[in-house]
Design a protein that fits this description.
Blueprint: H1 2-9, H2 29-43, H3 52-70, H4 81-86, E1 92-96, E2 99-104, E3 107-112, E4 115-121, H5 123-129, H6 135-150, H7 157-180, H8 184-198, H9 207-223, H10 227-241, H11 244-256, H12 260-273, H13 280-293, H14 297-310, H15 315-327, H16 331-344, H17 349-372, H18 379-403, H19 407-423, H20 427-439
Antiparallel strand pairs: 1-2, 2-3, 3-4
Length: 440
């Protein structure tokens, strides 16, 4: 995540050209404040508010308000650099815990480990222009978007585009302060504002840049747990250029929201729209798993059968089909599925375990029949038949135990082996299985 955010910052353009000044002119806070208040009065006048230049000037003036004290302050700006940027020394300095607070006119810097971690506006600047940290940027953004509505002849397209791009970049810069503090909730607020500008298409960015920014916006919102907002940005990307990566992100957010219906629909769309994707089997597996978890077993079975048709030697698909058949009480079909998987890969642990378990059930059923024949003709033959089946079951559990990397599955296999070997009188093997079980 951090890498992609840094890439977005690399495109930062602050848009200072629109209000640069000559060497003879010194911009002061008083001038900036007066200009901004003048703009407030102008938009309150219906006649003036109908003019595009009133809105472009409003955007420029509020960018001046934002930039006046914090234009060159970035995450990582050092304590030594601050007075050089501010062109004066701090009025006061105090330390609270591990944080040093340096106060200047209209702005306080919070310094941790020698670097700026955050800053806040103070005094009249805060009261008049910064009720929230990004209020001046919000006003500027609104102004340029309004100017765009009035830009019927297209003459202001260039300046509007440049300044909206600058605003999107500035929001992302603001997001980096909380981002590096792992305050993703706050970072997401600024990234969302940046993304809302970029997705309009008015910034003039090529599609690859828009996608990169929108992806950052989605990732930060996902990290913040704002799943609806993250999904919205991922959908914005898909509207530019759809990809399985974005649908995978959408699917993850839907799972986190426990919205299984939407998650299933997302997987179905991926399978329908991207049938040749290299990871199509992964999405199919996820869909089948979702159907199983939501007890839509018939749907899961149908897609498993499609999967097997496409990949007939995939033992994982065949095993899962066996598991589903067993769950739906299709016991004989389940046995055939497990046997088919074992025929393809004799050492496949999951199918061996489940087939061994079903064989054990069959063997025990035969042993119970034998008990009814105690003292009668056919008793020993029935016992021998039952023990033979139980021995086959042991063979399956042995293969499972030797080949699985799943510790719990291995432990369960040895547990069954120590019971079954004892049942058929192979006590040495039962003891050996118990020892291996205890080692786990």
């Amino acid at each position: 995540m951090k890498k992609s955010v840094i890439l977005a910052l690399g495109a930062l353009f602050l848009g200072n050209i629109a209000f640069s000044q000559s060497d003879e002119f010194q911009l002061t806070w008083g001038i900036v404040e007066t200009d901004a208040k003048k703009s407030d009065a102008e938009i309150a006048n219906p006649k003036k508010a109908s003019k595009i230049t009133v809105w472009t000037e409003r955007g420029r003036r509020y960018l001046q308000v934002y930039n006046f004290d914090a234009e060159n302050i970035y995450p990582g700006t050092t304590k030594e650099q601050i007075p050089l940027i501010m062109k004066c020394s701090a009025k006061s300095e105090q330390t609270v815990g591990d944080t040093t607070i340096q106060s200047f006119d209209r702005i306080d810097f919070y310094i941790v480990n020698g670097k700026v971690a955050k800053y806040t506006r103070t005094g009249r600047a805060k009261d008049n222009f910064f009720p929230t940290h990004s209020a001046a940027l919000d006003v500027a953004t609104e102004a340029y978007l309004k100017a765009n509505e009035l830009n019927l002849d297209g003459k202001k397209t260039k300046v509007i585009s440049e300044q909206l791009k600058a605003l999107a970049d500035l929001y992302q810069k603001e997001a980096l302060f909380p981002y590096y503090s792992k305050d993703y909730k706050t970072a997401a607020v600024y990234y969302t504002k940046a993304g809302n500008i970029v997705k309009t298409g008015l910034t003039g960015d090529v599609d690859s840049v828009r996608i990169a920014v929108l992806k950052n916006c989605g990732e930060i919102n996902k990290a913040a747990g704002n799943y609806d907002q993250a999904i919205s940005f991922y959908n914005d990307i898909n509207a530019i250029s759809a990809s399985t990566e974005m649908y995978a992100n959408i699917y993850y957010c839907q799972l986190m929201q426990k919205d299984t219906t939407s998650a299933v629909n997302t997987l179905l769309k991926v399978l329908n729209d991207f049938p040749n994707d290299p990871k199509v089997s992964d999405y199919l597996n996820q869909l089948i798993d979702m159907y199983i978890k939501t007890n839509q077993l018939e749907n899961a079975t149908a897609y498993l059968q499609k999967a097997i048709e496409a990949d007939p030697n995939n033992t994982a698909y065949i095993f899962n089909l066996g598991y589903l058949n067993e769950t739906m009480n299709n016991r004989d079909a389940a046995i055939e599925n497990y046997k088919k998987a074992i025929a393809i890969d004799a050492n496949e642990p999951n199918s061996n375990f489940n087939y061994g378990r079903l064989l054990a059930e069959n063997g025990n059923a035969v042993m119970k029949e034998a008990e009814k024949l105690w003292g009668k003709k056919g008793y020993q033959a029935k016992v021998d038949e039952g023990k033979k089946i139980l021995k086959q079951s042991c063979d399956c559990f042995e293969i499972c135990a030797e080949n699985t990397q799943d510790k719990n599955l291995k432990k369960n296999a040895y547990y069954n082996l120590m019971k079954l070997y004892a049942q058929i009188g192979l006590m040495d093997k039962s003891k050996a299985s118990r020892e291996k079980y205890n080692e786990l």
